[in-house]
Amino acid sequence: MSIPTDRLLDERKTVSLLNAGDAFPAMAVNVAGSGTLDVREELAGGYGVVLFYRGSWCPYCNAQLRAFQRAGDRLAETGIKVIALSVDSEVTTKELVAKHKLTFPVGHSADARAIARATGAFVNEDPEYLQSTGFVLGPDGRVLTAVYSNGAIGRLVPEDVIGLVSYLKEHAG
Questions:
Q1: For residues 141 and 23, is the Cβ–Cβ distance under 8 A?
Q2: pLDDT tens digits, 64-113
Q3: Which of 37, 65, 80, 95 could disulfide-link to 47, CB 3.0 to 4.6 Å?
């Protein structure tokens, strides 16, 4: 289910998308089974990926999370950490983490509206959830690239993230 286009345009008048070079906003995430973490603190000094996923019910989100888990060794070798979050409850998130054996932090109970105001992520109205959104952050906490989707498809994939960070490291100077 997507937000009607006219609704998206109305929300875009007051909500800005994050662009390359923008500082990623302060964001505390309730992590399944382990309290709260500050996204900027958790990713400080290294490359990071922040994924907003629609929910455990979404097959595309499940595939994306599994792909990032499978790429975990390559991401770590490249110096990339991953954090994901959704509006799902803690119980549902714990089940998802266990089902896919996810080892990166997965947040729950996200306030979709507050996150949308801070990042420009699209929100589905009924039921309310965040649409798939992904950010690659540099070591300084600034956005290197952002991928926004207003529906089920169109999202970051680990191979692209690894390729981007590898390229940036190779051409740093």
A1: yes
A2: 999 999 999 999 999 999 999 999 999 999 999 999 999 999 999 999 99
A3: 80
Q: What angle do CA 165, 170, 173 make, to 5 degrees?
A: 110
In tens, the pLDDT along 104-152 reads: 999 999 999 999 999 999 999 999 999 999 999 999 999 999 999 999 9
Q: Which backbone phi and psi does 102 adopt, to 5 degrees?
A: -75, 135
Backbone dihedral region of 12: left (phi > 0), alpha (psi from -120 to 50 degrees) or beta? alpha
Q: Sign of the CA dihedral 141, 146, 151, 155?
A: negative
Dig out the tokens for 3 from the structure: 């937000």
Q: How far apart are CA 146 and CA 55, in angstroms?
A: 19
39 to each of 9, 100, 115, how far by Cα in Å?
A: 28, 22, 12
- Tell me the Cα Rg of the chain: 15
Backbone angles phi, psi at 93, to 5 degrees: -65, -40
The secondary structure of residue 16, as a DSSP letter, is P
Residue type at 147 in one-letter notation: V
Nearest alpha carbon to residue 43 among 25, 65, 21: 25
